[in-house]
Amino acid sequence: MAKVRVSTLAKEFGMTSKELMGHLAEMKIPAKSASSALEDAYVAMVRKQLASVIEARAQEVEAAKQAEEQAAAAEEAARAAEAERERIAAEKAREEERRQFAAAQAAEEAARAEAEAKKKAEQERLAREKEEAAREAQRRAVPASDSGSRFRSLLDQIAAQETVLKEKKDAEQKAKAERGNRRGGNNDRRGGRRNDRNASDNNSERNASENRPHSHRTNASNSVAAGMDFPNPDKQGKGKKRKGGHNNEEDHYSRMAREAEEYSREKVLEEARAAVEEASRESTGRRKKRKEKREREAAKAQEERKIEEALAQGVNPEDLDAIKVSQGVTVQELAEALDVPANDIIKRLFLLGTPLTMTQSMSDDLVELVADDLGRQIKIITPEEENTFSFYDDPADLKPRAPVVTVMGHVDHGKTSLLDAIRHTGVAAGEAGGITQAIGASQVMINDRKITFIDTPGHATFTAMRARGAKVTDIVILIVAADDGVMPQTVESINHAKAAGVPIVVAVNKIDKPGANPDRVRQELTEYGVIPEEWGGQNMFVNISAKQKIGIDDLLETVLLQADVLELKANPDTFASGNVLEAKLDKGRGSVATVLVTRGTLHVGDTLVAGLTYGRVRAMLDPKGRAVTEAGPSDAVEILGLQSVPNAGDEFRVFEDEREARALADERSLKARIEEQSRVKHVTLENLFETIADAEVKELNLIIKADVQGSIEALQDSLDKMDQSEVRINTIHSAVGAINETDVVLADASNAIIIGFGVRPDGKARSAAEREGVEIRCYDVIYKCLEELDAARIGMLKPTEVEVSTGTATVLDTFKVPKVGIAAGVRVEEGEIAATDSVRLVRDGIVVFNGKIASMRHYKDEAKSLKSGSEGGIGLENFQDIKPGDQIEGYRIDQVARTE
Questions:
Q1: What's residue 243's pLDDT?
Q2: What local confidence, expressed as pLDDT, does residue 605 receive?
């Protein structure tokens, strides 16, 4: 029997090594430490001497165990009673919620009916007003035909009267001038001429009055004109004078008559002008209204045609007019897309202070500024959006669909156990219907309603879907252990759900375990914006036990209630689209992909594109493994027939033409290969020397992040003192704090290495660095950072040395060998010890020798190695103090390339 160590024997007796060492000292048994090995005789003596102590210790342990079991049973009974009380209270609360929800729905239906009635009445009123306005417009439009001619004739008459007035004024001015010249003549001549002039004036006035229409003559002018012929007492006795000349009274009356006639003419002309202007204004207003109406009708027809075209193409109407360009487009490509000369774009870039050449890429802001200046609508397509599809559905075509739920949470908080409990619950409850399980998804029927659960482990698929802008998951169940609380992956799950804009239902699991505290979980989640409804928040909380199947039905009902609030709808009567949940390559079936249909209906025989691959659906299996011919929204199915294996999270879409699908897949594959070939190979400490030798890099860019500013200054000062004759070290950015995603973006753009001193990168920064190939190095000792930088600069960065254990042997006896000295007869307990291995000689747990093997024999023959279970002889190099019972451990040092 082999020797037994003191520590092993102490564990067997149920006591500490220190206690056993005390007993060994009392029994005078030699033992230096807990790792000392005892001979078989000593072991038997110890077992015999300590039998009573071991038995008493066992009784104490048994008594303690019984007491603990009794306490656990009592606690379990109390917990069960408390759980029953909570269940009853929760049931009452749910009943009250259902009652309130039903009342709210009834009130909402009544309000909706009242609003529809008011809307209908308002529409009828507007229709009546519109009809009345149309009739009024028709009634007014009847005399409009001859009004124009009447107005035109009136304008001609007005123009004729203005001409007559002008001629008359000219004649009066001429007559006044003649009177001034002939004022010294005799009365007879003046009177005769005055009479002649008056006669001519009367004749012109008479002609003008004959030319005027009777409707425009006033009573005042007629009466004044008639009064000129009546006899007057003042005129009696002066007939000779009236016959021979023209006195002042006659001039006075004539002047009054002319003024009255001119006044009446001016008034008539003014009224005529006002009437014509009013008629013109009314006519212009009606034409303007008719023009505006035609423009509105044309715009409405254009919008309807645009919507019909968008529906035919399955895209958003707003995207039809926009010119699409890829992110990072060059000046030449933008000019071709906008159909303008490239010089126009270069000129605008120069005025913006950013001169670029034809082949240089433009930022998104510059592209938008140039397009806006040219008056063009443009849409920038990101690399993620290039592999996605945009759709537009008429709201009238949308129908209710089942919710899609993802279970997220920290490791060992019960995600898988919850899904198993949901499946088993669905099978056990006969009224709930059957349960189906798919590869990547599960479907449960509860209250005659279907719920689809995404079973993909981890966050990889969820993150990929969110990055592509696809909102596949409708509801997230965040599971948190009641005895563990909020953990790092719990916070990560919350951030993922919030970034995707998905409502969170919290399942507090393991409420049956000792130390469970659901209220503590609620309190911790409030720090991250997840607040229970009973505390005034927006998130629903359910206490469950996945293993005990407590609260599972409540959780499913809560999910359905949340789905009712979301009013989930989709258009099933169109071509199918959705996302790939997972995919694999099967030997017998080829490429197999599990897809989730989010829109339309997928049929067997459809041609689809998923990511970089395409194919025709040869077969389709439902979650039970049965062949089906179609799958609608929120259905998860397994399809066969793709040309290659797509990636998890890829979006798929059905195409009518297989050639179109193949062309799109080939174009995407070509772009992916070009991007991979043109991807920037960032400099690392491993390839720095080769990069310098190839003259690709003459300087090393660093980004330094540290815990305190003093560390940054010390590190920067040490870097400045380094020899920079071969390569110059530039610090492009330094700051205090953890390494974040912004630092990785800067390092990617400037081909830099990130140095962290006393800090670590966060999750997003680590993912971005792996994706972009940026190297992050973290140190706690400054000289180690300087040594690695200097070694990389001169190409002497040594690989990491890793010790690999090869085997263990026990020394059975020793013997003398000529020319060698003391050799050990050993038996290999495990592994294989080679003659070239390094070895350690361990005695009582202490290493007494570390070196090489001088000789190795198997019986009398030299051996290259000794395998497990074999015996042989081993001589150590320059060491003779070997004793029976010693352990020989073999190992070797492997060189492993540095990765961090």
A1: 41
A2: 92
- Which phi and psi (to 5°) does residue 219 adopt? -65, -35
- Model pLDDT for residues 427-446, shown as the tens digit of each residue: 333 333 334 333 467 788 88
Phi first, then psi, for residue 874 (nearest 5°) are -130, 130
C-beta separation of 608 from 614 below 8 A: yes
Strands across the sheet containing 404-409: 435-437, 441-446, 449-454, 404-409, 475-481, 504-509, 540-543
Q: Tokens for 736? A: 């205090």
Nearest to 352 by CA among 339, 371, 333: 371
Q: The tokens of 647 are what?
A: 């990636």
Question: Distance (Å, rounded) from C-alpha 736 to C-alpha 755?
Answer: 12
Q: What is the dihedral of CA 383, 384, 385, 386, to 10 degrees?
A: 50
Which pair of tokens denotes residue 154? 């009136």
Which position has the higher pLDDT, 747 or 818? Answer: 747
Residue with tokens 């009784």: 59
Q: What gap in Å lies between CA 443 and CA 281, rounded to an integer?
A: 72
**What confidence score (pLDDT) does residue 187 get?**
45
CA atoms of 555 and 444, how far apart (whole Å):
13
Sheet holding 728-736, edge to edge: 728-736, 699-706, 752-757, 776-779
Q: In angstroms, rounded to a whole number, what is the distance separating the alpha carbons of residues 729 and 700?
A: 5
Whose CA is closest to 513, among 558, 550, 552, 476?
550
Position 571, amino acid: N
Residue 604 phi, psi dihedral angles, 5° rounding:
-65, 130
Buried b (16+ CB within 10 A) or exposed e, 573-583: ebbbbbbbbbb
Which of the residue ranges 295-309, 487-501, 504-518, 725-739 would you say has the lowest mean pLDDT? 295-309
* SS3 state of residue 746: helix
Q: At what angle do helices 364-373 and 342-351 cross, to 10 degrees?
A: 110
Condensed to tens digits (0 to 9), the pLDDT of residues 318-369 reads: 555 677 787 778 888 888 888 888 888 888 888 888 888 888 888 888 888 8
pTM to 2 decimal places: 0.43
